[in-house]
Design goal:
The protein is α+β, with helices and mostly antiparallel strands. Helices cover 28% and strands 33% of the residues.
Length: 116
């Protein structure tokens, strides 16, 4: 992609038209991504009390959710921008959770077969 220079200036502003063109190009790209795919797990709840034995908060669990982490996060973002992502990675026991946490575009691109 050729970068246009409209005017040399000391400013570090972003040319939004060039940025838009760059983002639109993702749909024509295939990206090979080498990285570790991990599932980030978040626990949410309310603090019910502070433990007497140690300065530890006791959590009343409300929900748990899993989001793509590591290379899976980068792959998810690239697929969301329209790129075709070819991951080179090892996925452990959390593969089904990983697949369900990805966007549908990323999941279809990276996991064409079911993990049944």
């Amino acid at each position: 992609m050729k970068r246009r220079r409209t005017q040399e200036s000391a400013s570090t502003s972003v040319d939004l038209l060039v940025l838009r063109e760059c983002v639109e190009q993702f749909s024509t790209k295939t990206v090979v991504l080498l990285g570790d795919f991990v599932a980030d797990e978040f626990q949410h709840g309310e603090i019910s009390r502070v433990s007497r034995e140690a300065p530890v908060l006791i959590l009343k669990h409300r929900e748990t959710y899993i989001v793509p982490g590591g290379g899976a996060n980068a792959a998810n973002n690239l697929a969301s921008l329209g790129a075709r992502v070819l991951p080179v990675t090892a996925v452990g026991d959390e593969a089904p959770e990983m697949q369900s946490s990805l966007t549908s575009a990323a999941s279809e691109s990276m996991f064409p077969e079911s993990f049944a």
